[in-house]
Fold:
Amino acid sequence: MWLPLILMQAGAPALPPTAQLPPAPPAPASAQPSTTPPPAASPAPYPYPYPYAYPPPGPYPYGTQPSYPPGYAWPAAPPPTPAPPPEPRKPPSWMGTVTFGVGFIHKSDEVQLLEQDGYGMDARVWFQLDAAAMLGEHVGLGGWAAIAGNSWSAVNGGPDLTQVVYFIGPHVPIVVGSHDFSFVLSPRLGLAYGSLYFAHNERSQTVPAWGCDMGLLWRGGHIGMTFGFLYAPADPPGDLGRHYDLGSINFGITGVIDG
Structure:
């Protein structure tokens, strides 16, 4: 009720007691409270990021790993699978050797007689082939063949003296040791067919032969050494000859294969 007094004192006309203030203008639409509920939040992708997000999908390059958020440990790799033990090597079912070397001729009455005539019959070339089927890991059965020969000239002049001998027969190799390094003992029998002659006056003989070979073989490297001896007593090679031996003591380098 003080308002009309204040206005009258200020010189403003007083409002009648029944006068009303004009209504307030309506509020803009943007200021009106919304009756539409807010849209629902979109669901989180599966798997849900709780409590931490999963690593990015693979695959990953060899030797790398995804970056895990704190709280996740890189899973331990499984222990490496041990390599299977190598299969034991099967014993070979066959074996073959080739020997090239020198043979030292056995001393005999015939050799001594020829030495008196100036012929130095001391050594000859030796070439031998062996092959065997292994009946077990250490014993085999097979055959062998060899050829030996040489030619000598007399010191005091005269025709050349020639000897050529062929051998063939069975043998029984006995193998001791590993596949890499082996000792082979090979008893053998056979026949010797040979001749000892001047110029072309050849007289051949066929006689029994027997002996044995001993070899140290590196079968993994396909090489070895062989020492052996053969005896093959023969009749005199001529009317004026004497008894002699077609065999010899042999030494050579050996190549070996098996399978």
About this structure: DSSP finds two helices and eleven strands in the chain.
